[in-house]
Amino acid sequence: AVGSCVHAFCVPGRGAWSQEAGLLKGTKARAASSSGMGGCCASRRHVDTPSWRVPFASKGFTTNAQRDHEIDSVVQNMGQDGKVSMVNLSYKDLGDREAIRVANALRESTTVTAVDLSWNFIGPEGARSIGEALKVNKDVTSVSLDRNSLGEEGCRYICEALMVNETVTSLNIGWNSVGDKGAAYLAEMIRFNSTVRTLDIHTNGIGEDGFHLIAEALKHNKTLTSIKVGDLLSCHIPVMQGAKALAKALKENDSITNLVWSWNSIGDLGARVLAEALSHNATLTELVLNDDDIGDEGAKYLAGALAHNTSLKVLVLQDNLIGDKGARSLVEVLCGATCNLSFIDLSSNRIGPDGCKALVEAQMANPRVKVTLDDNPVGRDGVQALDSLKAGREEQERNGSTRDHLNESVAQPNEIH
Where are the alpha helices (DSSP H) in 253-378? Predict the structure, then answer.
């Protein structure tokens, strides 16, 4: 029997949701299994858990002695006549002592442009040294400190540094338990910093007050283009309050083009609030709403917004509750004359054969749009429709290549003269 979990189309270059902005990286390990009827299910909650705190050695990496030797080598090559441009010491079980060594070398470096110290145990003291280094360093453009132990104090040191630093354009400080006080420092940095363009602050224990400060700061920021926030449920923020605060920011912000707002369980009502803001936003080009409990009604609200929005190119709705009815709502927009979407990801929803066939027909009517339907119960009919679409596109590509070759052959004599 043909299984109903299908691997449909994926836009080239978007594997694991790796984007130029650096924010749309795969953050969940989806576990899918087939039922006796050929159906499928995916995990309903991301798998980023405190399990990353497993001791370094038990993960099968090098010993502490080997790690220290590697740090010695990296630090030595970070001098003024250094040989490295990228420092990657993630997953090395670094503490404050090791972070201070790296920071001291960073002060003198003139070649390093990117520093990745993620998945370690760096605390406030390490963050203080890193912050002081960033105040004087004029070359680093990317800093990743996610999944450390910075806390609110460490967050303050980094934010204070970025009020002075004028070269860092990308900061990842997610999973650091910065809380509301840390959020206040982040909000001040967002409001006044004019160089950071990519910011990841998800899963930081930020409460309602802190999130409102950040949302308010976004109204005034004119340079941030990509931001990742999410997992507000773990912070006990009322879902609708968070959605409304973000919606207000989107209405006034005219610089953000890439927004990741996942794992918040905003539901259909939250989708309605965001859809209303989307109708008035003219700059957002990529929107990710993974695992947000959005169902058919929510899809309908988003579809209505897309009928008026002309800037959005990519919409990601993985791991939601969208069925055939919601799929048909999206089909109406995809076939509309005002639709500018080029890619929509509906993986791991509840779309059956009818919804699948409708989406395939929409793609045939609008070849510019590609839809991913991985891990949906599309059944035999859906698989056949997807196979037909794939065959048709392959034929178009072959014909296009043939035409290009013939055009080149015709143009070549003219080029000689």
Answer: 267-280, 296-306, 324-334, 353-365
Closest CA to 359 of 112, 1, 8, 5: 8
Burial of 411 (0-12, 13-18, 19+ CB in 10 A): exposed
Amino acid identity at 8: A
The dihedral through the CA atoms of 319, 325, 327, 330 has a sign that is negative
Answer whether residue 12 shows pLDDT above 50: no
Please name the helix (run of DSSP H) or strand (run of DSSP E) that holds residue 135, with its range, or none.
Answer: helix 124-136
**At CB < 8 A and 24+ separation, what contacts does 96-101 make?**
96/122, 96/123, 96/124, 96/125, 96/126, 96/129, 97/126, 98/68, 98/71, 98/126, 99/125, 99/126, 99/127, 99/129, 99/130, 100/125, 100/126, 100/129, 101/71, 101/75
The dihedral through the CA atoms of 321, 325, 331, 332 has a sign that is negative
Alpha-carbon distance of 15 to 18, in angstroms, equals: 6
Q: What is the pTM of this model?
A: 0.80
Alpha carbon of 413 to those of 401, 407, 408, 417: distances in Å?
20, 11, 9, 7
Question: Which residue type sits at 210?
Answer: G
User: Which residues share a beta bridge with 244?
Assistant: none
CB 171, CB 162: distance < 8 Å: yes
**3 state SS of 118:** coil
Q: Give the pLDDT of residue 235.
A: 55
The rounded mean pLDDT for the chain is: 82
Residue 283 CA to residue 257 CA, distance in Å, equals 6
**Angle, helices 151-162/124-136, rounded to nearest 10 degrees:** 0
Cβ atoms of residues 138 and 106 within 8 Å: no
pLDDT digits (tens, 9 = 90+) for 203-242: 998 888 888 999 999 999 999 999 998 776 555 556 678 7
Q: Tell me how far apart the alpha carbons of residues 367 and 304 are, in angstroms, rounded to a whole number.
A: 21
pLDDT score of 234: 54
SS3 320: coil
